Amino acid sequence: MARKPHNFQTRNFTMEPIIAILDQGTMYIEMIHSMSGIPWWGFIPLLTIALRSVITLPLAIIQRKGFQKQNSFRPIINALSPVLKIKLAAKGQESQLARKLNPNKSPPIKSETEGLTGDKIMILASKEKFRRQRKIFKENGCQSWKFMLLPAVQIPLWVSISYMLRTLTGWSALGTRPIDPTLTTEGLGYLTDLAVSDPYFVLPVILGIFALANAEWNFATADLMKLTTRGVRNSLRPTAFDMIMTMSRGSIIFLMAMSTQAPAALVLYWISSNCFSLCQNLLMDKFIPVRYTPYRRFYSTKRLSRGAVALIDY
Questions:
Q1: Per-residue DSSP letters for 56-121?
Q2: Alpha carbon distance 278, 207 (integer Å)
Q3: Which alpha helices (H) appear in 102-177, and where do they start and end?
Q4: Dihedrals φ, ψ of 227, to 5°?
Q5: Which ranges does the record mark as transmembrane (predicted)?
Q6: In sequence order, what are the beta bridge partners of 205?
Q7: How many Cα neighbours within 13 Å face the side chain of 248?
Q8: Which residues does 108 contact at the CB level (< 8 Å), separation at least 6?
């Protein structure tokens, strides 16, 4: 008896709806540019500032305030470790003493505190510390998962605007005419045609400077959070964050290499976006600092009253 063939259901995924939305956005950008009368070399940075200010800046401020709230609880959370270790060690001693007093009586179920060693105490204390940390963050509305909202919005926005400008410049094949012919005449200086790449590689170098400055500033700010009150790091071992730092520096080199072949209009958007991010981070570190210890940026002795004596050397 012949078997009936299986009927497999297949799903086809298509990018056409997303591309249609992006193409519609490209038309809106072109329409706003024609209505504004601003040349492309000025319109692209202004468009970047407007979009980032309306969409990502409020999310960045919310994220920074969440970081502030989390760091305000760090002293309490860090103080839990020695207390938890002492409690676990005391429980371990109690269980050992109980076994010595009643050697013939054994508990029906072996608990976690049974036969505690130094390594086991550290592991159990760390687990309990992180459990209480999550509870504190949840009770105060500053859970770590909320901080993923900003990159979840900022990265698609960056990709979308890059695609739209790529479409406007016609950077899909060599020799393709740009969709918007004004891009070929509304450049600045020696680069009047923004639909072609920079022949002198000035824009890629500027992009690399801003991107690297932004990355290094963020890395330095994050590194300050690893300092103890004595001004030393908790650990000198390489961490996952150190690996992310190295990968980010490598991605900047890749972005610079790609920008040597990309249209100048697209590179101008990348420069504007990185410049906005750098200015945003500088201002936030000044007005909404994250660090709860004395290692703050932009410290000034002018804030001290006359005759005041500094207790901590900055």
A1: IHHHHHHHHHHHHHHHHTHHHHHHHHHHHHHHHHHHHHHHHHHHHH-TT---SS--TTTT--HHHH
A2: 12
A3: 118-139, 149-169
A4: -80, 145
A5: 40-62, 147-165, 200-220, 252-271
A6: none
A7: 15
A8: none
Amino acid identity at 89 = A
Burial class (CB in 10 A: 0-12, 13-18, 19+), 199: exposed
CA distance linking residue 187 with residue 244, whole number of Å: 36
Task: Report the chain's C-alpha Rg in angstroms.
Answer: 28
Cα 85 from Cα 91, distance rounded (Å): 10
Alpha-carbon distances of 39 from 33, 34, 164, 169, rounded to whole Å: 8, 9, 17, 15
The per-residue pLDDT for range 109-126, each reduced to its tens digit, is 555 555 667 778 788 888
Question: Tokens representing 41?
Answer: 């070399």
Interatomic CA distance for residues 298 and 225, integer angstroms: 16
Per-residue pLDDT tens over the stretch 155-193: 999 999 999 999 898 876 544 456 788 999 999 889 999
Distance CA 34, CA 132 (A): 56
CA 199 distance to own-chain centroid: 33
Residue 188's DSSP bridge partners are 191
Distance CA(26)–CA(168), nearest Å, equals 7
264-287 and 57-72 helices, crossing angle to 10°: 30
C-alpha 144 chain-centroid distance: 12
Q: Which of 236, 235, 227, 217 is nearest to 314 (CA)?
A: 227
Place of tokens 């709806």: 17
